[in-house]
Amino acid sequence: MHTGLCIFDTDYSIPIDELARAAEQRGFESLWVPEHTHIPASRRTPFPGGEPLPKHYSHTLDPFVSLTAAAAVTTKLKVGTGICLVIERDPITTAKSVASLDHFSNGRFLFGIGRGWNAEEMENHGTDFKTRSRRLRESVLAMKEIWTKDEASFKGEFCNFERIWAWPKAIQKPHPPVLLGGEGPLTVKRVVEYCDGWFPRGRNPEVLLSGMKDLADAAKKAGRDPKSLPVSAFAAPADPAVLDRFREAGVARAIFMLPSEGRDTILPLVDKYAKLIR
Fold this sequence. Notes:
Helix content is 38%, strand content 17%. By secondary structure, it is an alpha/beta fold. The protein has an eight-stranded parallel β-sheet.
């Protein structure tokens, strides 16, 4: 089982290039950053984690810029979005960003995606909260066409284009793995239908382990090999006993969450989590 780190990369936290170097030097497999373009001040949608909303949600840097900086100062460290809010993005330009980062990093990009939770944030991008699941599916399918075809076309409810050329193509073939965040039977169904892995939260090990069984069953019914859908436990507990259970169950990677703080706080935490790497 691999281990990774995740941080809300902000304008006040440890510089991402410094964190990336530290992560690679200590043997971590990957570094992840979440995405929020903005947070509407109305705060109509309650924060699922409980109010008040943490400051870092409205201070995040663009994930593709951050991960490019991280990739530039490392050679082995994988870089990933955890998660990218695809439903707030244009599929053509996002396909370009994904392929460009994978090209620049020499095939080290992992594309974690999700539906999001903030209705007003989506609305500001022209996305209806009720249609976000359909939009997410369609965006992924459209991007896969762009990544894998020299001349791509797509016709859907939200995205339409005919015969386009778009390079670069990603280093990874057929494209960087698409890992879907979330939990529950509908998420598992979506992972099997159009994604390449599952990106659940690891805070509740029982939910994750039960979901892995559901994922394996759904994959087999759909004719997919469950091993082709690796599980990445986001915000995993730094608990050796829990990590051993994850390893035994076949979890591909455990990702430890870091606070959005400066180097004096972060580097000792990185050292602490490094002791859990096997």
